[in-house]
Specification:
Peptide Methionine Sulfoxide Reductase, Chain A; 12 helices; 9 strands
Length: about 300
């Protein structure tokens, strides 16, 4: 029986990921499943840096799915003797150190350089993407959107606001632009507007021109912006509204519904399984629109 951690009982330093605790078992799983190993060295119980890493990097539902679906997660404690200490020495890591992650193949060899002295969610995310790219493996759609979510949250995207004849059409039309990662309907005074978050792949001038071509208007005053009570209009009228969703997922699904672009493609495996239950009339409280909440607050870890 492989020894694994229990996300309900493990230390907060390990986040919500379920980890293997045996190095040889991880190598065997890597060979069997053709997946790289995420070897995580952590202090248990740990200092504030270790605790914050577990909370801020390893507890987001989509980060957890990305790791558990595409990697073999292995946790090695850096502050206990025995087999853990042997693996610590094998990879030249110091005892009682802050969190460090290695990315290994089935022989235990490094695929890319380790993650150290970087305690930001984007640091871990970018490493996971780099591992899959190095192996020629595809990045799942939900994982790509998770990267957009992190950039929305941590200021990696630019934002602007446009006046629209109808902000619900603004949400979907602007989301058609490949550089636009998130849209939401809102108000400035009594004017319907749409707020847009976009990546550096396009300039503000390019996004402005796209908006003008779609029949919207640039505005100089962005003060007193308020989100509409029912953002993502098409999503809000669909069964997807019962799902816990990230902001980037909300924008993609809201655009995909009216344009008939298979909104299910933006779901993670767990979200897709839950959606199938919803379609069957199961596992849903129809008074609760989970999509409107932060995904951390609406995610059910027991499903």
């Amino acid at each position: 029986m492989e020894k694994r951690t229990d996300r309900e009982k493990q230390g907060v330093e390990l986040g919500k990921v379920t980890w293997l605790r045996d190095y040889d078992a991880a190598l065997a799983q890597s060979r069997l499943k053709d997946k790289p190993i995420l070897l995580f060295f952590q202090e248990i119980p740990g200092c504030s840096t270790c605790v914050n890493f577990g909370r801020e990097v390893l507890s987001h539902p989509l980060m957890v799915e990305f790791i558990e679906n595409e990697f073999v997660p292995l946790a090695i404690y850096n502050n206990i003797p025995g087999r853990d200490s042997e693996i610590l020495a094998r990879y030249n890591e110091r005892p009682w150190n802050n969190p460090v992650a290695h990315y290994l193949d089935a022989r235990g060899h490094a695929i890319i350089p380790k993650l150290s002295n970087n305690y930001h969610p984007l640091g871990m995310y970018d490493k996971l993407v780099a591992v899959l790219a190095a192996l020629g493996k595809p990045i799942p759609g939900y994982a790509m959107l998770f990267g957009d979510d992190l950039r929305i949250e941590y200021g990696g995207l630019q934002s602007t606001i446009y006046e629209t004849p109808c902000f619900w059409s603004g949400e979907t039309s602007m989301a058609l632009h490949p550089s636009v990662k998130y849209t939401e309907a809102g108000w400035i005074g009594g004017v319907e507007v749409v707020k847009v978050f976009f990546s550096a792949e396009s300039s503000l001038a390019e996004i402005d021109q796209f908006a003008i071509n779609e029949g919207f208007f640039t505005i100089g005053n962005h003060h007193n912006y308020k989100t509409d009570k029912r953002p993502q209009y098409y999503l809000s009228r669909s069964p997807f509204r019962y799902l816990p969703l990230s902001r980037a997922q909300r924008a993609r699904i809201n655009m995909a519904i009216p344009y008939q672009r298979q909104p299910e493609q933006y779901l993670s495996p767990k979200q897709e399984a839950l959606f199938m239950e919803i379609i069957k009339g199961h596992a849903v409280n129809r008074k609760i629109k989970n999509y409107e909440k932060d995904i951390d607050a609406s995610w059910d870890w027991n499903q």
